[in-house]
Backbone:
C-alpha cells in the first residue's frame, strides 16, 4: 500500500508562518483532482525545529515578515535537505526589497547553501502539466503589486541534480489562497503548477 | 656356562660395533647421497642437483619457492630423488577476489591466514585496507584494482586477480509516485545503479525516468516492483525472470496475480511501524513490514527480524526473485541516526544485487604471484617433514642412540660377569 502524501506547512518561530491558511486545502484539492496520488484530505502544521518534520519530506514555508531561524530550526532544515527532502518557500510579499525576501534568502543561504536561478527548461516545468515558459505568472505580478516585477525564474538550491529548496518571489501563496470550491469560477485553474511541484517532489 | 655367556656378549658387541661403523661410513657416490639446501640457496642447489642428482634432498625454506622452482623440484623428484622440506613456520596466507553485482565494479576480497594475524591488502597504488583474521578469515569489499590485490602477512604474500568483471545492466523500477518510490530510486542511483522508471501518476499519464522498455536481460539487470501499480512492462516479467533476469518484489507487489507464482513467499498480516523507535540507533527494526510466510520449496530466507522473515530469495528458471516485506523503507533514510541514509542506500543496493542478472566480461589479467602459495607448495612437495619441527635435519644412516646404549649394556654385562667370577 502506498502511503499518502501529507501537505505540510512549516511553523517557524519568527514571522507570520500562517499567513496563507487556505493554500494547503487548495493544493490538496488540486492533487486529488488531477492525479492518482493518495493525498491526505487535510494538511498538517509541523514546527521547523521538530524531528517530526523528517516524517514529511515535502514542506511549504511562507510569510510576510522577517525570517530568523533558531539553531534548532536550522539544524532540522539542514537534516531534511541532506536526507533528500524538499522545502518550497514562497515570498508572500512578492517584493524583492521586502523583509521576507531579504531575510529568508539570507537564512536559507546560511543554512543549506546559495540559491540560484532555476532554468525554465527544468524537469519541474514538465513534471505533469507543461510550462514551457517556466513558472506561471500570478495575478499579483500582472497587477503590479509588490515589487511591480514579473519574476521570470524561480530560485533553487540543488542537492546533486535534485531540487532541495525551491524559492519563489511570485506570491503563489496569494494566488492559491482561496477556497477550493471557488476554483469553478476560474476559466483556467491557476493551481496547476502546484501539481508539478508535488509530482516532482514525489518522483525526482 | 658363564664364560659361554661372556663370549656371546662379546660377539654381539663386536657385531653391533661393526654395524655402527658400517652405517657411519660414507655411502657409495651417486647412490645414497644426501643433499641439503638452506634458505636462499635453493636456486643454486637445483642447478647442481640437475646434473648430479642425490638420492634424497632436504630443503629448509624461509619462503615459498616460486612456481618455476617448485616445478623444477617436482621434476627432480620424478627422476628418483626423495625430497623433504621444513620451514620456519610459513603462514598459510590465501586470497580470493570475487566480483559482486555492484554497479561500482566492486569485488569481495576473501583472505585467510593464521588466526589473529594482521593482513595488509595492497594494490599497485598502495595499501587498500588491513584486516585481522578471525576464525576463518576476513572479508573486505573494494573496487577491483587492475593488477590484482596482494595480501601480506609479514614478508609472506599472496596475490589474486579478478578473472571476470560483472557488467551491471540498468534497473527498471515500477511504482506509484510516493516517498517509497522516490527514495528507493534515489538510494539506487546514489549507489551507482542506472535507473529507468515508470511511475503512473494519473490515468494515461506516467512520469518517466530514463527510457523504460520491455524487460530483457540484454538491457536490465533487475526489475523492481514497489507496489501493485500497473504498467505495460509487467506482462513480460515472468518470461524475463525465467530467462535469467532478476526481480525484486517489494511491499505488496507480490499480490499481483500474474506475479504471485514467482514470489518466494506469501505476505502475512502487516505489522505497523513503531514510529518512536525510528529515533533509535536501529531504525530499521521500527519499519512497517509484511512478514513473509509460507516460503516455497527452494526459497531461502535472507533477512529475519524478531523471528519473522522479512526478505527471501528463490530461483525461478534461470533468474532470481528477491522478495522484501518492508514497507515505507524511506522512513529509515529519514530516521534520526546519522548513518541511516547510507544504510538505507546500501540495503537497497544489496537487495537489487541479490537478484540481479550478472553479465560478466572476461578479464585477461596475468599475475606475478599466487593466491595460495603454501597450499601450492604442499600440492607440489607434500607436507613438511615432521622432524623439522625440532629444527633437526633428517639423516639417512648415522649413529643411533639405542645402538650405542645396547653396545654399552653388552660390554658392561660382559665385564661385570668376568669381574664377578674373578677373571681379569
Residues:
Amino acid at each position: 500500500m502506498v502511503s499518502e502524501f501529507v501537505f505540510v506547512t512549516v511553523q517557524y518561530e519568527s514571522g507570520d508562518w500562517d499567513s496563507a491558511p487556505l493554500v494547503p486545502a487548495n493544493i490538496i484539492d488540486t492533487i486529488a483532482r488531477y492525479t492518482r496520488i493518495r493525498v491526505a484530505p487535510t494538511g498538517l502544521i509541523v514546527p521547523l525545529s521538530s524531528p517530526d518534520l523528517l516524517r514529511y519530506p515535502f514542506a511549504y514555508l511562507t510569510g510576510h515578515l522577517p525570517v530568523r531561524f533558531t539553531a534548532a530550526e536550522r539544524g532540522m532544515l539542514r537534516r531534511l535537505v541532506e536526507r533528500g527532502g524538499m522545502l518550497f518557500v514562497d515570498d508572500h510579499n512578492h517584493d524583492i526589497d521586502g523583509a521576507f525576501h531579504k531575510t529568508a534568502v539570507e537564512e536559507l543561504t546560511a543554512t543549506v547553501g546559495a540559491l540560484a536561478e532555476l532554468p525554465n527548461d527544468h524537469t519541474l516545468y514538465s513534471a505533469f502539466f507543461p510550462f514551457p515558459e517556466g513558472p506561471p505568472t500570478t495575478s499579483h505580478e500582472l497587477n503590479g503589486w509588490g515589487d511591480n516585477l514579473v519574476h521570470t525564474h524561480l530560485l533553487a538550491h540543488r542537492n546533486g541534480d535534485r531540487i532541495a529548496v525551491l524559492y519563489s518571489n511570485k506570491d503563489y501563496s496569494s494566488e492559491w489562497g482561496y477556497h477550493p470550491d471557488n476554483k469553478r469560477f476560474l476559466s483556467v485553474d491557476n493551481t496547476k503548477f502546484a501539481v508539478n511541484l508535488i509530482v516532482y517532489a514525489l518522483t525526482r | 656356562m658363564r664364560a659361554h655367556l661372556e663370549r656371546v656378549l662379546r660377539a654381539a658387541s663386536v657385531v653391533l660395533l661393526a654395524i655402527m661403523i658400517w652405517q657411519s661410513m660414507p655411502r657409495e657416490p651417486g647412490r645414497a647421497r644426501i643433499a641439503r639446501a638452506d634458505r636462499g640457496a635453493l636456486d643454486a642447489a637445483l642447478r647442481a642437483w640437475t646434473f648430479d642428482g642425490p638420492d634424497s634432498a632436504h630443503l629448509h625454506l624461509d619462503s615459498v619457492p616460486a612456481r618455476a622452482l617448485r616445478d623444477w623440484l617436482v621434476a627432480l623428484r620424478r627422476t628418483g630423488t626423495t625430497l623433504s622440506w621444513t620451514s620456519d613456520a610459513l603462514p598459510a596466507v590465501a586470497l580470493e577476489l570475487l566480483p559482486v553485482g555492484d554497479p561500482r565494479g566492486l569485488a569481495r576480497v576473501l583472505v585467510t591466514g593464521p588466526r589473529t594475524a594482521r593482513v595488509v591488502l595492497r594494490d599497485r597504488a598502495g595499501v587498500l585496507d588491513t584486516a585481522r583474521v578471525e576464525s576463518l578469515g576476513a572479508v573486505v569489499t573494494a573496487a577491483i584494482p587492475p593488477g590484482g590485490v596482494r595480501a601480506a602477512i609479514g614478508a609472506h604474500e599472496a596475490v589474486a586477480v579478478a578473472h571476470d568483471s560483472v557488467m551491471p545492466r540498468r534497473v527498471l523500477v515500477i511504482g506509484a509516485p510516493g516517498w517509497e518510490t522516490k527514495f528507493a530510486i534515489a538510494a539506487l542511483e546514489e549507489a551507482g545503479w542506472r535507473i529507468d522508471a515508470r511511475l503512473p501518476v494519473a490515468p494515461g499519464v506516467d512520469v518517466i525516468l530514463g527510457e523504460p522498455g520491455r524487460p530483457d536481460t540484454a538491457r536490465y539487470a533487475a526489475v523492481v516492483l514497489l507496489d501493485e501499480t500497473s504498467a505495460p512492462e509487467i506482462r513480460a516479467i515472468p518470461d524475463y525472470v525465467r530467462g535469467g533476469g532478476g526481480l525484486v518484489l517489494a511491499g505488496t507487489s507480490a499480490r499481483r496475480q500474474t506475479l504471485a507464482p514467482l514470489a518466494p513467499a506469501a505476505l502475512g498480516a502487516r505489522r505497523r511501524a513503531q514510529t518512536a523507535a525510528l529515533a533509535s540507533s536501529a531504525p530499521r527494526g521500527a519499519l512497517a513490514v509484511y512478514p513473509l510466510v509460507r516460503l516455497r520449496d527452494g526459497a531461502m530466507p535472507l533477512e529475519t527480524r524478531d523471528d519473522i522473515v522479512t526478505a527471501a530469495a528463490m530461483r525461478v528458471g534461470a533468474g532470481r526473485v528477491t522478495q522484501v516485506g518492508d514497507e515505507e523503507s524511506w522512513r529509515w533514510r529519514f530516521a534520526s541516526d546519522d548513518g541511516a541514509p547510507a544504510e538505507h542506500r546500501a540495503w537497497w543496493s544489496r537487495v537489487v544485487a541479490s537478484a540481479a542478472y550478472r553479465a560478466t566480461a572476461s578479464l585477461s589479467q596475468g599475475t606475478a604471484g599466487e593466491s595460495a602459495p603454501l597450499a601450492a607448495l604442499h600440492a607440489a612437495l607434500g607436507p613438511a617433514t615432521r622432524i623439522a619441527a625440532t629444527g633437526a635435519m633428517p639423516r639417512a644412516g648415522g649413529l643411533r642412540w639405542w645402538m650405542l646404549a645396547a653396545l654399552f649394556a653388552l660390554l658392561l654385562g660382559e665385564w661385570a660377569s668376568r669381574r664377578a667370577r674373578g677373571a681379569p
